[in-house]
């Protein structure tokens, strides 16, 4: 809620793959800030508490590395946004 976050435009974001930091960023460096994104989407749909808006990721994606590095089955991704929480996922092979 608004009283839990001092500045929506200054939330640190990070992503680790297998314990190695791959991406670091902040909402202040996003192409479109969170206020614009919510305003824009609200013109087309009703946002409810708990809705998620996927926006993309900070610099450091694997295909931009030399050589490109892609996720493989067994890799573990951990990511977070300060004040909002963290997630952890393990990559599995398609069936």
Number of helices, counting only DSSP H or I runs of 4 residues or more: 1
Distance linking N and C termini: 40 Å
Number of domains: 1
Q: What is the averaged pLDDT score?
A: 90
How does the helix and strand content classify structurally? mainly beta
- Strand order, main sheet: write it out: 2-1-3-4
Q: What is the CATH superfamily label?
A: Fumarylacetoacetase-like, C-terminal domain
CATH class: Alpha Beta
Question: What general outline do the C-alpha atoms trace?
Answer: globular
Q: List unreliable stretches of 5+ residues.
A: none
- How much helicity do the residues have? under 10%
CATH architecture heading: Alpha-Beta Complex
Strand runs, count: 4
Strand content: 25-35%
List keywords for this structure.
95 residues; 9% helix; mainly beta; four-stranded antiparallel β-sheet; Fumarylacetoacetate hydrolase, domain 2; globular; 1 helix
Give a structural overview.
The structure is a single chain. With 95 residues, the chain is mainly beta. The protein has one domain (2-90): Fumarylacetoacetate hydrolase, domain 2, CATH 3.90.850.10. It has one helix and four strands; from the N terminus they run ββαββ. It has one helix at 34-42, and strands at residues 12-17, 20-26, 76-81, 85-90. The protein is globular, with a radius of gyration of 15 Å.
């Amino acid at each position: 809620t608004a009283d839990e976050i001092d500045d929506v435009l200054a939330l640190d974001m990070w992503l680790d793959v297998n314990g190695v930091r791959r991406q670091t960023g902040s909402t202040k460096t996003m192409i479109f800030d969170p206020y614009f994104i919510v305003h824009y989407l609200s013109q087309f749909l009703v946002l409810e508490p708990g809705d998620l808006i996927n926006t993309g990721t900070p610099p450091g994606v694997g295909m931009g590395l030399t050589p490109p590095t892609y996720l493989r089955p067994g890799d573990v991704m951990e990511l977070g946004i300060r004040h909002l929480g963290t997630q952890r996922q393990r990559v599995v092979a398609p069936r």
